[in-house]
UniProtKB/TrEMBL annotation:
Keywords: RNA-binding. GO terms for molecular function: RNA binding. Coiled coil: none annotated. The lineage of its organism: Eukaryota, Metazoa, Chordata, Craniata, Vertebrata. The keyword RNA-binding applies. SUPFAM superfamilies: NagB/RpiA/CoA transferase-like. It holds the Pfam family 5-FTHF_cyc-lig. This is Methenyltetrahydrofolate synthase domain-containing protein.
Length: 223
């Protein structure tokens, strides 16, 4: 049978060999950035769930930069997880008053996340309306494969534990079309986060995923 790692290697290899990958390269062992990521990010504006949101959690991955910028431009609250959860869970991005487009663009980059943010503790009252995660591979059914370190799953579980998300909170991922593949259901584990919407440069896919999302931290999975 095929493993999650087999699927990852296949996608990373294909994106590099077809020159679909974008900086930082090579994309192996990361959430791959791709040519057209900004275009894919723009599709979030077509989702009703985005229009209704106030607080959006977006992962710090490079291909999600366009969504982080849109959240800031839409005057919504942007929460970005601390890389590898080293210093707590979230940073709230706080652009300076009267920030220009250029400053907002900087705020949306990984450097901006470091320079224009305040940490949010686990005991803070946070209510996240929308979760945006990066993926290495995703299926139209909503199964997701990350880069293999489990941070997106753990962040989601921590948000559940602190009451920041509920099972109704939509999860969106942004990928290149070639990252939408069949994933055998037996590879999906109970701690794996599933996705409700997949945005690519050419498509908006509503997965209609009915599988319950993780409802807390699976402690035995934490090494």
């Amino acid at each position: 049978g095929v493993s999650k790692q087999d699927i990852r290697e296949q996608i990373w290899g294909y994106m590099e060999s077809q020159n679909l990958a974008d900086f930082p390269r090579p994309v192996h062992h990361r959430i791959p950035n791709f040519k057209g990521s900004y275009l894919a990010c723009q599709n979030i504006k077509d989702l009703d769930v985005f229009a209704r949101t106030q607080e959006v959690k977006v992962d710090p991955d490079k291909p999600l930069e366009g969504v982080r910028l849109l959240v800031l431009q839409s005057k919504k609250t942007l929460l970005v997880p601390t890389p590898r959860l080293r210093t707590g869970l979230f940073n709230k991005i706080t652009p300076p008053p009267g920030a220009t487009k250029d400053i907002l663009r900087k705020c949306a980059t990984s450097q901006g996340v470091r320079n224009y943010s305040v940490p949010i503790g686990l005991d803070s009252r946070v209510l996240v309306d929308l979760v945006v995660v990066g993926s290495v591979a995703v299926s139209e059914k909503g199964w997701r494969i990350g880069k293999g370190e489990g941070y997106a799953d753990l962040e989601y579980a921590m948000m559940v534990s602190m009451g920041a998300v509920s099972k109704e909170t939509p999860v969106v991922t942004i990928v290149h079309d070639c990252q939408v593949v069949d994933i055998p259901e037996e590879l999906v584990e109970e701690h794996d986060i599933t996705v409700d919407y997949i945005l690519t440069p050419t498509r908006v896919i509503a997965t209609g995923c009915k599988r319950p999302k993780p409802m807390g931290i699976t402690w035995f999975k934490i090494r």
